[in-house]
Design a protein that fits this description.
heterodimer, A: about 65% helix
Chain lengths: ~575, ~475
């Protein structure tokens, strides 16, 4: 009987020497306790090593699906004919049986045997040491898990992080080198530094010119503008720079070459970054641009990490220091971090920068999530959002007052909620509002104190006391039958009060306001009259007023005090002066 | 009698005629007053001709000639063309006013043009100088200033015998650049490592050298395409067959992930850039070495090119370094520690930049300070020889180095060093022998003078040699 054993390094085929041992499953492990005893049970018949990790990976993926790979089939065909094969996976056994007509065996004993084999693997397979096997299994497991995760090399965002870091480094170094060229060549031709401002142009000019004596005969049209060229040629004749040896000049030219090559590489890297950003995070790129997007990813650590951040965090990413300082000192927190360099914020007026930054951050957070976790790989969502943000910016700036940003894309217009109207219906669903005369401010001696007292009491405990108020008014009607006019007025007030009660029950907020108004009106009336009935609200409002007055009073005196103080101070000073004078 | 005036400006010769002399009279005081006002001066002096210099070099030559009282060919032509001809045998009816009497006599000797140079002429020339840009129409005032500046600089450089091969600024620039390059190459190499390790993490452990890593990364590219066939080429790069095999083996079982082609291309390009930069660094180092051997040969041979260059760049120039006492040189580059120590009354530092010399590393911990002091002494002497000696020799540097070695041995094993006197004697012998062999009399004389200056005492002791030479 043969045993098929799969290792990360390859397939192994063992021959079972003593098949009788298999019957005693319980004690099988004892035979695999040492390598010597194991060798008495099994012997390596053949070993098929994988060529490289990719082959191992393809074999392993097929094995997981219980299918024999091509290499395995070939291997079995050559080494296994007419014998039963013990396999660890019964499905695999079936597949082998079907395809290769080899009898396969799978039971408890086989599993125990496999366990034993795994234990003594490195001893049994000659030429496969532990230190060889370990990197193999590590490599295979890594590639297998990447394969299982459907890992795409196109989606590696580490490269972006590296590239943006490198881009920053390159910018810095390029500047350093260019300044070095300027300083070095400036020894020979100091005027050139002022004539040619651009670093790259400067390096090109120096490389072309060499010694400044050559300047007159050369054509700089490829490097410089015409007027600059003329200026250069003029300056070269009367330059006050020192002469320079050829060796020095050769080295300066070498440095110029480096500067030019570096700048060229920088351009390449920028292209690379752009293309990567467009594949990895197309929507993010559409919203904020490649550089800002890449910086955001680099700051977040990875696209996935960034996707976990809320919009508010994205907004101030890169301004952590300012944020925590602001939180500590209780000042205003920063409005933007890395996102500030996005073109949308650059377009906004200084006043709107904060607002736009907030909306942009929100949309950016969405775009990042879409890029990191979504299936689509186009930038339509980002572009759409960008258009929306631009529209919003225009709205904020007041250029397009007519259209609102939200309704640009055919959304249903949300109507203003009106509690008195049903949607679509023309008529009011609540009783029509009537004019509240009680809220009016009355001038002149229109009401008697008694009535007023009744009125004010009613106003105090509105809903509860409406009935009692009615009673009192009835009583008053009985008592003072003469004053018909006033009676009418009273009844009107009652009616309106009733109405008010129903309306006010629906809207408690308004009620409060009205209460105040009524209270104050009553107060005014009372102030007009000589008698002042006790009112619950009166004292409080009065108190408020008093407080206000007090405040006003206290403020004035305080000012006065200050003035006095300053006066006294000045007086003191004068006194001192006088004293001094006297002393003198 | 007409009076012509020759005025040498930075941009060319010019000739003026003073025709209102009679009105002014020979009173310098009156002239002095009239000079300031262009309206009056313009009536007195008339512009005749202007001959611009062809180039800055030409201007320098003319300037040199004038300052030495010589008349150049150009000046002679200019004068002969523009001045009226004097009849043969007769006295000329005009005279030429020049600022420099020497030039005047030279002109008179060769061309028979009567020249005068007195206070009156000088006053007139002063006026011409003041209003020069008004007289010549197509000359912008800034141009004249620039020309003066340029000529002034080149004239003074010529006067101080400026040697382009001995500009210490170049060394200072080179050492700065070398430092920057070292830093950059290191950071870029680390980036290449990080970048390529994403694809092939095992390579970092096999190849330690930065430059080699970049080279291999560029060669291997996609690790899955690396086969046994590549071993010979890989071995060429690594310089070791076993390592090449190891790399191929590692590539087979690598756990690194695949990169997309565009990423790979970018990594390759970057690796190439790093290699270019390291090659440029090598070139720059060679340049620094040759430069140091031109500028400070003794210092370089004593303490090494890089440390020597650092010392020069820290002092600002070789001359500044030569002016430093050796105690300053000893702690050059450790100023911060020094002043902190002075403030807190702690121990002052033992060494600054010279610590990077191998001598101090070789001394035992107890003797490091002593060694630094001794080395600083010798460096100071070497820098002075380099700065003020005309002869380009490394003999002194080598001898000083021997002395330092001997001192090191003395601290280490107690072997007594040679006496300073003997060493210097042999050094001077050596130098004279060399210049005698080369037969360069001037160099010999220069050496003689210099050595008397520097090593006066030894030289007097050594007088017999001078007699021998005579």
């Amino acid at each position: 009987m043969l045993v098929l054993f799969e290792t990360p390094a390859g397939f192994a085929l063992f021959k079972v020497l003593d098949e009788g041992k298999l019957s005693n499953v319980e004690d099988l492990w004892k035979d695999f306790a040492t390598s010597e005893s194991a060798r008495q049970v099994v012997k390596l018949k053949a070993f098929n090593k994988f060529e490289n990790t990719t082959e191992a990976l393809s074999a392993a993926t097929l094995l997981i699906d219980s299918k024999p790979s091509k290499g395995l089939r070939k291997f079995l065909r050559t080494h296994c004919d007419g014998e039963t094969l013990a396999v660890a996976d019964s499905k695999l056994g079936n597949a082998i049986k079907e395809k290769l007509k080899i009898d396969c065996l799978h039971n408890n004993a086989v599993m125990e045997l496999m366990r034993g084999l795994r234990n003594q693997l490195t001893e049994l397979i000659s030429g496969l040491a532990t230190q060889d096997l370990a990197p193999m299994s590590l490599g295979l497991s890594h590639s297998l898990s990447r394969y299982k995760l459907k890992f795409s090399p196109d989606k590696v965002d580490t490269m972006i992080i590296q590239a943006i870091g490198l881009l920053d480094d390159l910018d810095k170094e390029l500047n350093t080198y260019a300044m070095r060229v300027r300083e070095w060549y400036g020894w020979h031709f100091p005027e050139l530094a002022k004539i040619v401002q651009d670093n790259i142009q400067y390096a090109k000019t120096v490389k072309l010119m060499g010694d400044r004596v050559n300047a007159a005969d050369l054509d700089f049209s490829e490097v410089l503008a015409e007027e600059i060229e003329a200026e250069l040629k003029e300056a070269a004749v009367i330059s006050m720079g020192t002469e320079i040896s050829d060796l020095d000049l050769a080295n300066i030219r070498c440095l110029c070459d480096q500067v030019l090559a570096l700048s060229e590489y920088r351009a390449q890297l920028y292209d690379y970054l752009r293309s990567r950003m467009n594949t990895i995070a197309p929507n993010l790129t559409a919203l904020v641009g490649e550089l800002v997007g890449a910086r955001l990813i680099a700051h977040g650590g990875s696209l996935l990490n960034l996707a976990k951040q809320p919009g508010s965090t994205v907004q101030i990413l890169g301004a952590e220091k300012a944020l925590f300082r602001a939180l500590k000192t209780k000042h205003a927190t920063p409005k933007y971090g890395l996102i500030f360099h996005a073109s949308l914020i650059g377009q906004a007026a200084p006043k709107l920068k904060g607002k736009i930054s907030r909306s942009l951050a929100a949309k950016t957070a969405l775009a990042i999530r879409y890029d990191a976790l979504g299936e689509n790989t186009d930038s339509s969502m980002g572009l759409e959002n960008r258009a929306k943000l631009e529209a919003r910016l225009r709205v904020l700036e007041g250029r397009e007052l007519g259209r609102s940003a939200g309704s640009a894309k055919g959304k249903p217009k949300i109507e203003v909620y009106d509690k008195d109207r049903k949607k679509g219906a023309g008529a009011l669903i609540t009783p029509a509002k009537t004019y509240n005369t009680s809220a009016d401010l009355l001038l002149g001696p229109a009401t008697t104190p008694e009535q007023d007292g009744a009125l004010s009491r009613k106003r105090k405990h509105e809903e509860v006391e409406t009935e009692s108020a009615k009673e009192t008014t009835d009583a008053s009607v009985e008592e003072d039958g003469k004053k018909e006019k006033k009676k009418k007025k009273k009844s009107k007030i009652e009616e309106t009060n009733d109405n008010d009660a129903t309306v006010e029950a629906a809207e408690p907020e308004k009620k409060k306001k009205k209460k105040k108004i009524e209270g104050s009106s009553a107060e005014f009336v009372n102030n007009d009259e000589t008698t002042v009935p006790e009112n619950d609200e009166e004292p409080s409002t009065k108190e408020k007023k008093k407080k206000k007055r007090k405040n006003a009073e206290t403020e004035e005196p305080s000012v006065n005090v200050e003035e006095q103080e300053t006066e006294t101070k000045s007086k003191k000073k004068e006194k001192k002066k006088k004293e001094k004078k006297g002393g003198e | 009698m007409a009076l012509y005036l020759l005025y040498e400006s930075a941009s060319g010769y010019s000739l003026f005629q003073a025709h209102g002399i009679d009105e002014i009279g020979q009173n310098t005081e009156a002239v002095r007053n009239s000079v300031l006002d262009l309206n009056r001066f313009g009536k007195v002096v008339r512009f005749v001709a202007f001959n611009p210099f062809s180039s800055a070099l030409d201007a320098l030559n003319q300037c040199n000639a004038i300052s030495e009282g010589l008349m150049t060919e150009e000046l002679r032509n200019f004068l002969e063309i523009n001045l009226p001809k004097a009849k043969e045998g007769k006295k000329a009816k005009f005279s030429l006013g020049v600022a420099e009497p020497k030039v005047g006599s030279q002109i008179f000797e060769t061309t028979k043009i009567p020249c005068q140079s007195n206070e009156f002429v000088l006053e007139l020339l002063r006026g011409v100088r003041l209003h020069f840009d008004r007289f010549i129409k197509d000359l912008k005032p800034t141009d004249l200033e620039k020309a003066q500046l340029g000529l002034g600089h080149s004239y003074s450089r010529a006067k101080v015998k400026f040697n382009v091969n001995r500009v210490d600024n170049m060394v200072i620039q080179a050492i700065f650049l070398l430092d920057t390059l070292d830093k950059d190459i290191n950071s870029f190499s680390m980036r290449v490592r990080e970048w390529y390790s994403w694809h092939f993490p095992e390579l970092v452990k096999i190849v330690n050298d930065n430059y080699l890593f970049a080279k291999i990364a560029k060669f291997v590219e996609n690790k899955s395409e690396l086969t046994e066939n590549h071993i010979p080429e890989l071995a060429d790069i690594v310089g070791d067959e076993d390592k090449a095999k190891e790399i191929v083996e590692a590539a087979k079982a690598s756990m690194g992930q695949d990169l997309s082609p565009i990423d790979l291309i970018n990594v390759q390009q970057f690796a190439q850039r790093v290699m270019d930069l390291s090659e440029y660094r090598k070139k720059l180092y060679e340049y620094l070495v040759t430069k140091m051997n031109d500028i400070a040969p003794n210092l370089a041979s004593l303490i090494g090119e890089v440390v020597g260059a650092r010392l020069i760049s820290h002092a600002g120039s070789l001359t500044n370094l030569a002016k430093c006492p050796s105690s300053t040189l000893q702690i050059l580059g450790a100023e911060k520690a020094l002043f902190r120590a002075l403030k807190t009354r702690g121990n002052t530092p033992k060494y600054g930049l010279i610590f990077h010399s191998s001598f101090i590393g070789r001394a035992s911990a107890r003797n490091k300070g002593r060694m630094a002091r001794y080395l600083a002494n010798k460096c100071s002497i070497a820098s002075r020889i380099d700065c003020f000696s005309e002869a380009n020799t490394t003999v002194f540097g080598e001898k000083l180095r021997e002395q330092v070695e001997e001192r090191l041995e003395f601290y280490d094993k107690g072997v007594a060093p040679r006496k300073n006197l003997d060493v210097m004697k042999s050094a001077i012998d050596n130098v004279f022998q060399k210049s005698l062999q080369s037969g360069d009399g001037m160099a010999l004389l220069y050496n003689f003078v210099t050595f008397v200056k520097i090593y006066g005492n030894i030289f007097i002791y050594h007088y017999y040699f001078v007699f021998q030479f005579r």
